[in-house]
Amino acid sequence: MTDTRQPLNVLFLCTHNSARSILAEALLNDMGTSRFKAYSAGSSPRDNQQPNPLGLQVLHNAGISTEGLRSKSWDEFAAPGAPHMDLIITVCDNAAGEVCPIWPGHPATAHWGYADPSEGDAPEAQKLEAFRQTLHAMKRRLELLVSLPEEKLAKTTLQTTARQLVSN
Predict the structure, then answer these.
(1) Of 60, 109, 128, 145, which residue is least crowded by CB atoms under 10 Å?
(2) φ, ψ for residue 11, nearest 5 deg
(3) Is the Ribosomal protein keyword given for this protein (predicted)?
């Protein structure tokens, strides 16, 4: 029997859309099979912003596709014709505190804060390890999300469910 349901669209947000949200997008698209479709965006990506090369390296080393990943503004997902989002997750504290666009359909929201692995003046090897640790922390939480039964993913319970997923 084939599953004819549409996948749940999940948008991961952070400020510049270069590190954490990019990791989460790639990871969920890798793990989510046909149940989830992930996107990412930033509240204020810099001009010519690109995904952080260390993040792309960590994804590549983990065997996760980086094809199609690009930094973009969250305005792209609030515009007419954008994919309808079912769940929006902020992955940085700055984006969580910002005034978000009005999302069509009033999707469920959650905040899963992660430290910025690209922040500071640490040596490249130390930053690479920070990206790897962030990827693993996200993976643990996303494993919980993708393993949820259908009733926990229903619109009426999705927000509560997503906010309760804690990574240990």
Answers:
(1) 60
(2) -110, 120
(3) no
CA distance 105 to 47: 29
Domains and CATH numbers, the chain: 8-159 (3.40.50.2300)
Q: How many CB atoms lie within 10 A of CB 121?
A: 6
Q: Which long-range contacts (CB under 8 A, 24 or more apart) does 23-26 make?
A: 23/55, 23/58, 23/59, 23/131, 23/134, 23/135, 23/138, 24/89, 24/91, 24/138, 24/142, 25/69, 26/59, 26/64, 26/65, 26/66, 26/69
Question: What are the two backbone dihedrals, phi and then psi, of residue 56, each rounded to the nearest 5 degrees?
Answer: -65, -40
Q: How far apart are CA 162 and CA 166, in angstroms?
A: 9
> Which regions of the chain does DSSP assign to beta strands (E)?
8-14, 36-42, 87-90, 108-111
Sequence-distant (6+) residues with CB within 8 A of 69 are 22, 25, 26, 40, 51, 56
Reading the block at residue 45, the tokens are 């990506």
Residue 147 three-state SS: coil
Distance, CA of 21 to CA of 19 (rounded, Å) = 6
User: What does the pLDDT look like over 17-74, one tens digit per residue?
Assistant: 999 999 999 999 999 778 999 999 998 888 888 999 999 999 999 999 999 999 999 9
pTM for the whole thing?
0.88
